[in-house]
Write a structure and sequence with these properties.
The protein is α/β, with parallel strands linked by helices. It has one domain: Uracil-DNA glycosylase-like domain (Uracil-DNA Glycosylase, subunit E). The chain has helices at residues 15-22, 57-62, 69-81, 115-132, 142-149, 155-158, 182-187, 191-207, and strands spanning 48-52, 89-92, 99-101, 108-110, 136-140, 162-163, 176-179. The strands form 2 sheets. It has a 5-stranded mixed beta sheet with strand order 2-1-5-7-6, sandwiched between helices. A two-stranded antiparallel sheet has the order 3-4. The protein is globular, with a radius of gyration of 16 Å. It holds the Pfam family UDG.
């Protein structure tokens, strides 16, 4: 069961301290089955902060965000769109892997985080925003977008557009752009078309940086 231990980030903008503190978060039940907390990675001076949904199986084992198949596709799309991943700060709205076992109990199958889990993890995402102070926040997928823009946000209506954050986040999120999660590209019936649309959204975001 969730408890109060480590559920709130410490009052610091030091990413190493935040990462260490997040490893002990017990704010929702996901920590019980996950291998470890997967905190964000990148420079505190990054101009772009990228938010995904949650770590997957590969990320849970490695302790790093976006290192699985979706991460490899994301790296390729970043390169085509003019982003250098090494200069970005990359994280997730939820820091623990939510999954269910297959019928044989071997494979771990991704499950979408619920609103309760997103809300429980939101203080950590806000702490990362305070530490990095990006010029642009890139939101990958509906869960990531709704974690900052609210549960009523509809990705299909606003993907690729420059977005204003809610007033409470005005100082943390100067501009945001939402697009699909790279895993959605991998699942798409026409992967080439989905990938082209994904790269187009990233290029539109890149132009906002001048």
């Amino acid at each position: 069961m969730p408890d109060s231990r480590g559920a709130e980030p410490p009052d610091t903008t030091d990413l190493d301290r935040l990462r260490s503190a997040a490893s002990g978060c017990r704010g929702c039940p996901l920590y019980q089955d996950a291998t470890q907390t997967v905190f964000g990675e990148g420079s505190a001076g990054a101009k772009v902060l990228v938010v995904g949904e949650q770590p997957g199986d590969k990320e849970d084992l490695a302790g790093e965000p976006f290192v699985g198949p979706a991460g490899k596709l994301l790296d390729r799309a970043f390169e085509e769109a003019g982003f250098d991943r090494r200069s970005l700060y990359v994280t997730n709205a939820v820091k623990h892997f939510k999954f269910k076992r297959d019928e044989r109990g071997k494979r771990r199958i991704h499950q979408k985080p619920g609103r309760t889990e997103v809300v429980a993890c939101r203080p950590w995402l806000l702490a990362e925003l305070r530490a990095v102070r990006p010029e642009l926040v890139l939101l990958l997928g509906a869960t990531a977008a709704q974690s900052l823009l609210g549960p009523k946000f509809r990705l299909t209506a606003h993907r690729g557009e420059p977005l204003e954050a809610p007033e409470e986040l005005a100082g943390l999120v100067p501009t945001a752009v939402a697009t699909v999660h790279p895993s959605a590209v991998l699942r798409a019936p026409d992967r080439d078309e989905a990938y082209a649309g994904f790269v187009a959204d990233l290029r539109a975001a890149a132009k906002l940086l001048g």
